[in-house]
Amino acid sequence: MKKVRITVLKTTLDEQLAREYGVEGLGPCPMLREGQVFYADYAKPEGMCDEAWKAIYQYVFALAHGAGDGLFYFGDWIRKPGVAICSCNDGLRPVIFKLEATGEDSRLNYTPVR
């Protein structure tokens, strides 16, 4: 298994939807910032929003297990092998992530119980 680099590309706010449905003073995600980088494989990296992780972990897992050797799906999404562009599931203020396969081996930081 390889590590995957997760970069926060953009924090956004859909102003129209926020005006209609959001609380007063709602802004872009306060938990993550553009340019922030995490590394992950099988587990959520420290400091990563739980909800964002739930939205992107399946792509991280796929890249960590070799999906980065080719293009996702049928080559009709991302043109660069080993890359996925994903977002969290916050409909008012989604955060956009770039996931990249790395050549760095992952290491378990716990002892499996058997």
Structure description:
This protein is α+β, with helices and mostly antiparallel strands. It is built from two helices and four strands. The chain has helices spanning 15-21, 50-64, and strands at 2-11, 37-40, 83-87, 95-105. Strands 2-1-4-3 form a four-stranded antiparallel sheet, with helices on one face. It starts with a strand and ends in a 9-residue tail after the last strand. 23% of the residues are buried. The model has no long low-confidence stretch (mean pLDDT 90).
Question: Secondary-structure blueprint of this entry?
Answer:
Layout: E1 2-11, H1 15-21, E2 37-40, H2 50-64, E3 83-87, E4 95-105
Number of alpha- plus pi-helical segments: 2
Proportion of residues in β-strands: 25-35%
Categorize the overall geometry: globular
The residue ranges in which pLDDT falls below 50 over 5 or more consecutive positions are: none
